[in-house]
Amino acid sequence: MKNILLVQHCQSEHHINNMTGGWTDTPLTELGRQQAERIALRLSQVASGKEYVLYSSDLLRAKQTADIINATLELAIIVDGELREINSGIAAGQTREWANEHRNPRAGHDFELDYREFAEGETWREFYARVSHCMERITRTEHNNIIIVTHGGTLSYIIAWWLKFELHMLAQAYFPASAGSLSRLGQNNFGQQTLNLFNDTSHLQG
Fold first, then answer.
1. 19-53 confidence digits (pLDDT tens)
2. The whole model's pTM is what?
3. Half-sphere exposure (CA, 13 Å, Cβ side) for 146?
4. With contact defined as beta carbons under 8 Å apart, do 99 and 135 qualify?
5. Which of 6, 23, 77, 185 can bridge 92 by disulfide, Cβ–Cβ 3.0-4.6 Å?
6. How many domains does the chain have?
7. How far apart are CA 152 and CA 114, in angstroms?
């Protein structure tokens, strides 16, 4: 049975300097590095006695989180560009004010699967397809114990894929997690996909 630990990357410069997220490629803050060290300690306890493989998005804030975790766990990191956050197109590297002025208009207030927020970026449909393709590839490997360091939107869509969401269900639910959080996916004895832990930040306290 598969056991997948999801790590949302730790605090990044874009969280504090008014920059957009998405494909804006910013490093961790000092606090983010401290958070990653706490995650590493937690994972060293959780992963004890099991053979894990570590995947990471190639964006700097995720890769640095994975590198700090790996300094403790000593696993081979598999860097995978399909684990990136949603492609923010021309908004990458821009301020939030710039993004507000250049965002494509929406048809209404409801979730739109084919809405492309920024030119040259992804729609939610395209994003979900990318994440789904990535997870199908990762879970087809022989590895049963997997750690994935990724981003908030990607983490939510990994969970949706694991729970077998159909495309139309993406309009009904979202799984917002926090920087530096841990979540865990698994399977039970009935063969059902399970969300055993979500958005746990207890390791960041004190």
1. 999 999 999 999 999 999 999 999 999 887 789 99
2. 0.96
3. 23
4. no
5. 23
6. 1
7. 19
